[in-house]
Amino acid sequence: MKKILVTGGAGFIGSALVPKLVLKGYNVTVLDSFIFNQQVFSSLFKYDNLSLIKGDVRDEDLIKKTLKENDVIIPLAALVGAPMCELDPFGTKTVNSDAIKFIVE
């Protein structure tokens, strides 16, 4: 069975996608900063094919390690919304752009 890494998996899109992947039997690892203390996967804790990692998509060592352990990556990590992006333009660029470039490379 494929191993899938979902960065930003506790966000809006990930919180809808991850349960579907888990219920289909995929081994899913969610990498998320959980900066909003999301508790979106509490109903899935009984499944052995879900792993949660609290971390930053900009942590290159963590990304290298998790990429090696997975077959597929779904990069959803992002800082979104004008207020957040204006509040942290550097963070927005490094999460939304630089981290994706690193993953692709």
The Rg value, from CA coordinates, equals 14 Å
Uncertain residue ranges: none
Helix percent band: 25-40%
State the order of secondary-structure elements, H for helix, E for strand. EHEEHEHH
Main β-sheet description: 4 strands, parallel
Assess the beta-strand content as a share of residues: 15-25%
Number of strands: 4
What would you say this structure looks like, in words?
This protein has 105 residues and is α/β, with parallel strands linked by helices. It is 39% helix and 19% strand. The protein is built from four helices and four strands; from the N terminus they run βαββαβαα. Strands 3-2-1-4 form a four-stranded parallel beta sheet, covered by helices on one side.
Short description:
The protein is built from 4 helices and 4 strands. It has a 4-stranded parallel sheet with strand order 3-2-1-4, with helices on one face.
Key traits:
alpha/beta; 4-stranded parallel beta sheet; 105 residues; 4 strands; 19% strand; 4 helices
Describe the protein's topology.
Layout (H helix, E strand, L loop, with lengths): L2 E5 L6 H10 L3 E6 L17 E5 L5 H9 L3 E4 L6 H6 L1 H16 L1
Parallel strand pairs: 1-2, 1-4, 2-3
